[in-house]
Structure formats: C-alpha cells, structure tokens
C-alpha cells in the first residue's frame, strides 16, 4: 500500500511540475489508474474484494 501511495504522489507531483513535457503528460494520464489501485488496495485491507476492471 505504501508503494502505491508513493507512486501516486510521484505521478501527481511530476504531472504538475515535471520538466519533460511528454513525461509530464504520461504522469498525468497515469494518476487515475494509480488512484484506482490505491482504492482497491484500501478495500482489500478492509477485507473487501477489489475487482479489477482492466485497462
């Protein structure tokens, strides 16, 4: 869970302030996917099932 949260922080930060435009765009695009992973991990920690909707 910590690694996923760190990845989310990294992508949000680079998406906002990254110095390479293509990488910044890629980071912004990845944020919603990583947010889904964080939500699924949190649900699993609470004992729920985290269905994967695919990409």
Kindly describe this structure.
With 55 residues, this protein is mostly helical. The protein has one domain (2-45). It contains two helices and no strands. Helix 1 (2-17) runs antiparallel to helix 2 (21-45).
**Structure classification:** mainly alpha
Radius of gyration: 13 Å
List unreliable stretches of 5+ residues.
none
Helix count? 2
Give the CA-CA distance, first to last residue: 20 Å
H/E series: HH
**Major β-sheet profile:** none
Number of domains: 1
| Proportion of beta-strand residues | under 5%
Number of strands: 0
Mean pLDDT: 89
Shape: elongated
The percent of residues in helical segments reads: over 70%
In summary, what is this structure?
The protein is mainly alpha-helical. It is 75% helix and 0% strand.
């Amino acid at each position: 869970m910590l690694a996923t949260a760190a990845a989310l922080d990294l992508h949000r930060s680079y998406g906002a302030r990254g110095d390479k435009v293509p990488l910044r765009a890629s980071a912004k695009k990845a944020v919603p996917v990583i947010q889904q992973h964080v939500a699924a991990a949190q649900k699993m920690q609470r004992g729920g099932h985290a269905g994967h909707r695919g990409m």
